[in-house]
Design brief:
By secondary structure, the chain is of the alpha+beta class. The protein contains 14 helices and 6 strands. It has a single domain, classed as Endonuclease III, domain 1 (Orthogonal Bundle). It has a 4-stranded antiparallel beta sheet, with no helix packed on it. A two-stranded antiparallel ribbon has the order 5-6. The chain binds a DNA duplex through α4, α5, α11 and α12.
DNA sequence: CCAAGGCCTGAATG
DNA sequence: ACATTCAGGCCTT
């Protein structure tokens, strides 16, 4: 029986934060960097390769977070409806490549491209009679040719992906450092990577760099703000400029608080379900 | 600082 | 069938 603190695995996986997950019966298998994770029907996460993982962010005080973001009836409704929805803490490199690919795309295509990338550049492992490909190491992608990367269906993003991997190899992007510093410092750094703008940076920070004050503003979230929060956050123009994005984010942090990223996840999940959008 | 246009790709729409 | 649109943005002009 699920209680207030248990995890709703299906809804958490199907909320746009991860892509390389496959359901087998009641079990979920997922690629997380150099690891494979298995989540059983009781929501127990296990590293199949016996590595340490904090994929479920077990140190989060969910009760405190929920209370903190429960600012109005819209978000309260989403929280109630998707009780157990959690933000994962995923492998940063995989997360970075995933969201570079996500720009101007959709979930099915993102998953498709990522699978091809693992098949082409990742190490194959066989466990429990099932075959998987780990996510490739940064070196592997950094040394690949742009044409090779393009065979994975990523189009114009191929040079971005190569360059991003290079920057990780050269430590121009240092995930250990980015985890330690605050939102603004991390964002400034990560936006230096080509193909990473405001929205993609916020996704990477929220889903892999422990920045719960990141609030990715994609077209869905903009729609949601216009629909339910027109009084709190006025949006005048069709497209959001850099400056507007920053101002909006400041207001959102003031309104929802330091865990606003969780509010985003609940609202995003609810609205896309309302429109019957497909997940993995 | 803002607005407009282009961009790989493939599933969905007409 | 075939053309066009659109999709969880970013970069350049």
């Amino acid at each position: 029986m699920k209680n207030k603190f248990s995890i709703d695995t299906d809804n958490s996986i199907n909320s746009g934060q991860v892509f390389l997950w496959e359901k087998d019966g009641t079990d979920w298998y997922g690629i997380n960097g150099q690891d494979i994770l298995k989540i059983n029907k009781n929501g127990i996460v296990k590293s199949v390769l016996n590595s340490k993982t904090n994929f479920f962010r077990k140190n989060d005080n969910i009760q405190e977070i929920i209370e903190s973001i429960s600012k109005d009836k819209t978000v309260k409704k989403a929280i109630k409806k998707y009780e157990g929805l959690k933000i994962f803490r995923q492998d940063p490199f995989q997360c970075m490549i995933s969201f570079i690919i996500s720009s101007n795309s959709n979930i099915q295509k993102i998953k498709n491209s990522l699978e091809k990338i693992t098949e082409k550049f990742g190490t194959q492992v066989k466990i429990q009679n099932k075959e998987f490909f780990l996510f490739p190491k940064p070196e592997k992608i950094a040394n690949a040719s742009i044409d090779e990367i393009k065979t994975c269906g990523v189009g114009y993003r191929a040079p971005f992906i190569k360059q991003a991997a290079k920057m990780v190899v050269l430590k121009k992007i240092d995930f250990k450092y980015l985890e330690k510093c605050n939102y603004h410092e991390a964002k400034k750094n990560i936006c230096l990577v080509p193909g990473i703008g405001n929205k993609v940076a916020d996704c990477i920070m929220l889903f892999s760099l422990n920045k719960l004050d990141a609030f990715p503003l994609d077209t869905w979230m903009i729609k949601i703000l216009e629909k339910y929060y027109s009084k709190e956050f006025k949006i005048e123009t069709k497209t959001i400029t850099q400056k507007q994005y920053e101002l909006l984010h400041e207001k959102i942090v003031i309104y929802f608080g330091p865990y606003c990223g969780y509010a985003q996840q609940f609202l995003f999940k609810m609205e896309r379900e309302n429109y019957d959008k497909k997940w993995l």
